[in-house]
Amino acid sequence: MATPLEKAHKAPDSMKARILKAARRMFGDYGYHGTTTRMIAREVGIDISTLYYHWGEKGDLYESVILDINNALREKLAEVEKVVHGLPLAKRLDIAIDMMAEYLFECPEISNLVLFQYFRKTRKVPSLDFHVPDFISDIACSMGLCKTGNDVPIRDSMKVLAMMNSIHNFISGENFFREMLNLKRAEYIRLVKETLEFILIPAFTPLESSKKQTHNLRR
Predict the structure, then answer these.
(1) How far is CA 60 from CA 30, 51, 57, 63, in A?
(2) What are phi and psi of 42, to 5 degrees?
(3) Percentages of the chain per state (helix, strand, coil), in multiples of 5
(4) How confident is the model at residue 20, as a pLDDT?
(5) What is the DSSP letter of 130?
(6) pLDDT tens profile 119-130
(7) Which residue, among 22, 24, 18, 184, has the nearest Cα to 108 in the 3D structure?
(8) What is the percentage of the chain residues whose pLDDT exceeds 70?
(9) Inter-axis angle of helices 154-172 and 89-106, to 10 degrees?
(10) Which of 26, 28, 29 is nearest to 37 (CA)?
(11) Cα 124 to Cα 171: distance, rounded to the nearest angstrom
């Protein structure tokens, strides 16, 4: 029997899908504890009983949102891996940063929910959580830091976490940073990518970056 989440994806214009979309946005904006089912129902333009009929209690809907985001992130990482596989590490990072930043800017609730979930004292602990260890392993393998996802050294896991959190912070903090820097959205997105590449590529490819700098000095 299909789950409510599977039904929502099979019928993207259905009431289930509309509620899911609104819930992703509302939970992303206000977190689990700052969002009520009445807020979500009001956003969709339905009564609360309709929301309960399609998704059950608030915790059920939240866990479906987390599972939906987990699945979407896994699919996106697989897509990125197909594009960057076999390329030099610096090129892999360049492409991956561009693709992931574009994706997360289109779905900012993902970064918001990640940060809500792991950096708030009043966190919701569902039976389904963000699969961060799995994502770390996938990224580490894609970057060539380990051969399999079962042997990621702690130091390399920390490096991947630093990379992931730097991206999420730029996405989640967009409104604050854009106002502070007086930037339009397109320019902000361009500069975020440029800054991430400036910081992360040399950090993960020190030998390649050193050779490139030496080559440039000799020219």
Answers:
(1) 17, 11, 5, 5
(2) -65, -40
(3) 80, 0, 20
(4) 97
(5) -
(6) 655 455 555 455
(7) 24
(8) 84
(9) 40
(10) 26
(11) 22
Whether 182 contacts 66, CB under 8 Å: no
Task: State yes or no: pLDDT of 219 exceeds 50.
Answer: no
- The radius of gyration of the chain's CA atoms, rounded to the nearest angstrom, is 20
Tell me the C-alpha distance between 87 and 189, whole Å.
Answer: 25
* Token representation of residue 184: 């339009």
Give the domain CATH number at 104. Answer: 1.10.357.10
Place of tokens 């630093």: 162
Structural domain count, the chain: 1
Sign for the CA dihedral angle at 113, 117, 121, 126 comes to positive
The letter for the amino acid at 12 is P
- 2-9: Cβ within 8 A, 24+ apart: 3/64, 4/54, 4/55, 4/56, 4/64, 5/64, 5/67, 5/68
Q: Largest alpha-carbon pair distance within the chain?
A: 71
Fill in the amino acid letter for 148: T
Q: Are 203 and 145 in contact (CB under 8 A)?
A: no
